[in-house]
TrEMBL record:
It comes from Pseudomonas marincola. It comes from the Bacteria. This is YecA family protein. NCBIfam families: PRK10396.1, ygfB_yecA. Transmembrane segments: none annotated.
């Protein structure tokens, strides 16, 4: 059960806890947490939970309402990290980044900004060394998306360009994971 995918109610619990205990320095939502944990699962070294867990909260663990609540959040986070590692390592077809969606002029638009921002946060905690040029270009695809401000899409939003950018993120994350696996 340590790497069984999370259920909808598990994601709801995580989202609620992030909203309840988070601040401007913490991971804001499940999409960002998914990107963060994906980078941790993908990096050159395994990062100890004593380092990566407080980083979710901007460096300081929350003052949990109860020990059970803290344990459940930790357990679900570790389980999701293990699931991502298993998917990226042996079942890449099952790997799907948890992007957000928004409504734009009556149409649903997928947004990856928060996921990409979380991914960069995970890289920072993992202290990734410099990448070869081809892989640095893959990482740049993710970094560019993290820099976008999608809180309000512009009136001249180009859906085709946006979708091309989104389509490049998953293969980039897989390529980065695969590279670091060979370096471990």
């Amino acid at each position: 059960m340590q790497n069984a995918p999370l259920a909808a109610n598990d994601y709801e619990f995580l989202e609620d806890a992030l909203l309840k205990y988070g601040d401007d320095n913490s991971v804001l939502n499940v999409s960002e947490l998914d990107g963060y944990l994906t980078a941790l699962a993908s990096g050159p070294v395994q990062v100890d939970i004593a380092e990566w867990f407080p980083a979710i909260w901007g460096g300081e663990n929350p003052d949990w309402q109860s020990p059970d609540e803290a344990k459940q959040f930790i357990d679900l986070s570790v389980r999701h990290l293990n699931t991502l590692a298993a998917q990226l390592g042996t079942d890449v077809q099952a790997f799907e980044p948890r992007f957000e969606t928004t409504d734009h002029h009556g149409q649903s638009v997928t947004l990856a900004e928060e996921w990409c921002f979380g991914y960069l946060r995970g890289i920072s905690v993992s202290n990734w060394p410099e990448l070869p040029a081809q892989l640095a270009a893959q990482l740049e695809l993710i970094a560019q998306c993290a820099e976008e401000d999608n809180f309000e899409l512009p009136a001249n939003f180009d859906a085709n360009q946006h979708n091309q950018q989104l389509a490049a993120i998953k293969p980039a994350a897989i390529a980065l994971h695969d590279y670091w696996v060979t370096q471990r």
